[in-house]
Amino acid sequence: MDIAFIGLGTMGDPMVRNLLRAGHSVTVHNRTREKEQSLIAAGATAAESPKQAAAAAEIVITCVSDSPDVEAVILGESGVIHSDRPGTLVIDMSTISPEVTRRIAQALAKKEMRMIDAPVSGGSEGAQQGTLSIMVGGEAADVERAMPVLTAMGRTVTHVGPIGAGQTTKAINQIIVAGTYWSVAEGMSLGLKAGLDMEKVVQAVGSGAAGSWGLTNRSGNMIANNYPLGFRVRLHQKDLKIALDTARDLGLPLPMAAYVEQIENGLIARGYGDEDISAIARSVREPGGISDQPSGQPS
Ligand code: NAP
């Protein structure tokens, strides 16, 4: 299939590689154009703008940062909407507001272009291995059409409801991630402070009821006090804001999500916004006086 892919960051780059591996023809565009180079070497073609990338594609995928960024690459001056290709299916795989998603879909519909929202979970590892969980909102026929493309990037593709429902599901995902990462941060900090062998601790608790993706994949960062990407703190804070706005509109209190959103606010203010979200452990370790202590040493 002829696919255009816009946004070649931590997630977009490996997702394009999986599309190429599956035999699709991919035209890429990234705001910072240098990031296109290694994908050209892998078999992709590059285009000068989202509009130009979309001009040759049946399906256009966007994977950029936030709601205004998706609006810019789809509805902006050189956006996908100006490619003048009725029938094009736009798949937005960024994590953005459900409300903005519905607005963009309406604008595209006026040009006879279709849209589904398909945010993902599974981290940079999931993007590399093609094992993402993809949460899809949209009309059944559009989702059906997207399936060969989505299954090249993810292992679980779930059509959860109409346009925007994928993003609401992703907000739920991010609330749960906030809680599990924060709990792992508290647990790891207690183990460090008590001078336990943290490898054994993770093995023991990870095999029982406390097991989670965050514990398995990110407790090592928290123990080492080193937070390489991964998933940026500032992007998760953006996701919690989406969850909190959605909940506020529905009249639902989410105190834990609000708490972690504020912890992340402080991390961003202290210059840690581009670290992996496991960096929330800094906000437990440092008040506990274990900032740079190596694993297994009592304080
Ligand atoms: P990233 O590494 O920061 O990459 C973001 C990409 O979006 C970059 O290619 C950036 O271009 C582009 N971009 C941002 N604003 C733009 C704009 N206004 N116009 C054009 N391009 C723009 O982010 P990521 O980790 O790949 O995340 C992408 C999306 O997936 C986000 O919505 C994130 O929440 C979601 N997500 C991420 C993860 C994860 O583990 N990383 C997991 C699940 C979902 P430049 O190169 O020019 O900056």
Layout of secondary structure:
Elements: E1 2-6, H1 12-21, E2 25-29, H2 37-41, E3 45-46, H3 50-54, E4 59-62, H4 67-75, E5 89-92, H5 98-109, E6 114-117, E7 120-121, H6 123-129, E8 132-137, H7 140-150, E9 154-161, H8 165-193, H9 198-206, H10 213-224, H11 233-250, H12 255-269, H13 282-285
Parallel strand pairs: 1-2, 1-4, 2-3, 4-5, 5-6, 8-9
Antiparallel strand pairs: 7-8
Helix pairs in contact: 1-6, 4-5, 8-10, 8-11, 8-12, 11-12
Bound molecules: NADP nicotinamide-adenine-dinucleotide phosphate.
NADP nicotinamide-adenine-dinucleotide phosphate is lined by residues 7-12, 30-32, 35, 63-65, 69, 72-73, 94-95, 120-121, 123-124, 230-231, 235, 239.
The radius of gyration over CA amounts to 20 Å
Q: Looking at this structure, what is the CATH superfamily of the largest domain?
A: NAD(P)-binding Rossmann-like Domain
Strand order of the largest sheet: 3-2-1-4-5-6
Bound molecules: NADP nicotinamide-adenine-dinucleotide phosphate
CATH architecture of the largest domain: 3-Layer(aba) Sandwich
Structure classification: alpha/beta
Number of strands: 9
Sheet bearing the most strands, described? 6 strands, parallel
Rough outline? globular
β-strand amount:
5-15%
- CATH top level assignment of the largest domain: Alpha Beta
Discrete helix count: 13
Can you tell me the CATH topology of the largest domain? Rossmann fold
* Amino- and carboxy-terminal Cα gap: 58 Å
The secondary-structure element order is EHEHEHEHEHEEHEHEHHHHHH
Low-confidence stretches: 294-299
State mean pLDDT (0 to 100 scale). Answer: 96
The percentage helix is 40-55%
Number of domains: 2
